[in-house]
Amino acid sequence: MVQKAKILLVDDRPENLLALEAILSALDQTLVRASSGEEALKALLTDDFAVILLDVQMPGMDGFETAAHIKRRERTRDIPIIFLTAINHGPHHTFRGYAAGAVDYISKPFDPWVLRAKVSVFVELYMKNCQLREQAALLRLQLEGGGKAAGGEAKEPAGLLAELSARLAAVEEQAEALSKQLGDESTDAAAVATAAHLERKLTGLRRALDALEPGSSGGQAAVN
């Protein structure tokens, strides 16, 4: 069963959190509420999130300060942040949001379809990255274990490489389709850049796997 991605919703107003849940429920992912910046940072200590929807105006620690803390932590610095604000802001206010590390800055009231579409892109990128990490972990495990199958029986090197290659090919195909979709739809530059980073990681994994093929000059493969 595919594990659902977690989306962090941060807003001090319960009615706003309820509205976000209604909009994003169609994505069928796990929605986690936080009513303050402090509560959001606490949630980020233990859980991994695909994307954070962060209200700018909150009592105590506001959205900008919360984002600064998120970006300073190694564990959370790469999580995409979408700022939500009811303020009638100018270019300077928007720039401050991007400077704080946001991938997008949306004013309320926002189009529910647009918000859902933006969030779905980052959820899909997160899922692809999870698949890539799983394939890399599997490759390391099977190489270190001498190519043993799940039942503990040793597999022939050629069969092991073919199985890993097929698994990787499936992820590569999905990543290629996603990149094409992002390009066709002219989605946010941040999402396109994230997809490109994913493809580079896939390319590195493919090269490491190819180096293990009989007759190759790679010798040993290192997967980062």
TrEMBL record:
Gene3D superfamilies: 3.40.50.2300
Keyword Coiled coil belongs to the record: yes
Chain segments annotated as coiled-coil in the UniProt record: 161-188
Record-linked SMART domains: REC
Alphabetical UniProt keywords: Coiled coil, Phosphoprotein
SUPFAM superfamilies xref list: CheY-like
InterPro entries: Bact_response_regulator, CheY-like_superfamily, Sig_transdc_resp-reg_receiver
Protein name as annotated: Response regulator
Species whose genome carries this gene: Streptomyces marokkonensis
